[in-house]
Design a protein that fits this description.
β4, α8 and β5 form a beta-alpha-beta unit. This protein is 44% helix and 20% strand. By secondary structure, it is α/β, with parallel strands linked by helices. It has a seven-stranded mixed β-sheet with strand order 3-2-1-4-5-7-6, with helices on both faces. The chain is globular, with a radius of gyration of 16 Å. It is built from ten helices and seven strands. α1 runs parallel beside α5. Bound molecules: the ligand Cn1ncc2cc([C@H](O)c3cccc(CNC(=O)c4cc(-c5ccc(F)cc5)cc(O)c4O)c3)ccc21 and magnesium ion. Magnesium ion (MG) binds next to loops. The ligand Cn1ncc2cc([C@H](O)c3cccc(CNC(=O)c4cc(-c5ccc(F)cc5)cc(O)c4O)c3)ccc21 binds next to β2 and α9.
Length: 215
């Protein structure tokens, strides 16, 4: 049977990128998705904004919701200092299998903990299972209707503390209206919109950065 799009993305990485060179992995995926097949990676334009937020926060523990093929996982992990790590949740086993290989090819497996499972099931276990106190940065890129419930769950579980930064992809396209309304109107968040474009297209999209101000 036909290969899947994630399998074709992995093949592009394995044929075009250099083992142990995260930037070449990022470049190979962006080239493939711009010139061969579109795919829902955060992409190069929004990816540069993601990079700048990671550099600004210099997080020790990062949570990523929605791994897909590991593109944004690699973007984040390549900027982390020794001892810092990104925990990334992926519920689709086929996506998780591809992402593991992309992350391995980039040489960043020591900075990444890929967990197969749904955000709602795993968030309550983060403290106990991974010894996480609170996350310094959360990158939301999974089902758009899960952004708000999972943010509230992270708050309830004490995984968001003063200074924690939430960075949400796709707040315009496909859009996350209930999440945007919440973080923009809550007195507990300072929110900022970074206008950009939907990956590999001219359509408008953007990232919303929300800093938790404490209770
Ligand atoms: C609960 N839980 N826990 C972990 C977890 C992980 C997943 C998967 O990683 C997964 C699977 C399918 C879809 C997504 C969300 N992403 C999107 O839907 C998206 C769409 C578009 C777009 C835009 C325009 C179009 F025309 C079509 C698609 C552009 C984008 O950047 C996206 O991120 C995420 C799902 C639920 C999960
Ligand atoms: Mg996205």
């Amino acid at each position: 049977t036909r290969t899947s799009r994630p399998q074709r993305i992995l093949k592009a990485v394995q044929t075009k990128a250099t083992v142990g060179d995260p930037q070449s992995v990022i470049t190979a995926i962006d080239h493939f998705c711009r010139h061969r097949e579109w795919a829902m990676n955060v992409g190069d334009e929004k990816g540069s904004i993601l990079d700048s937020v990671v550099n600004e926060v210099s997080p020790v523990t990062v949570l990523e919701l929605g791994t897909y093929c590991g593109y944004s996982t690699v973007r984040i992990a390549r900027l982390l200092p020794p001892g810092a790590c990104v925990i990334t949740l992926e519920f689709n086993p086929d996506y998780a299998a591809i992402a593991r290989q992309v992350i391995k090819w980039s040489g960043l497996e020591d900075k990444v903990q890929l967990v197969e499972g749904a955000s709602g099931d795993w968030i309550p276990w983060m403290k106990e299972h991974f010894g996480v106190q609170a996350f310094d940065l959360v990158f939301l890129d999974h089902w758009k209707e899960r952004y708000l419930p999972d943010t509230k769950l992270l708050e309830e579980c004490g995984l968001i503390q003063k200074g924690t930064v939430l960075l949400a992809d796709n707040v315009i396209c496909p859009g996350t209206p209930d999440y945007l309304e919440y973080v923009r109107n809550s007195p507990h968040y300072n929110s900022q919109y970074y206008r950009s474009h939907l990956e590999y297209t001219k359509a408008e999209d953007g990232l919303e950065k929300s800093v938790f101000l404490g209770y």
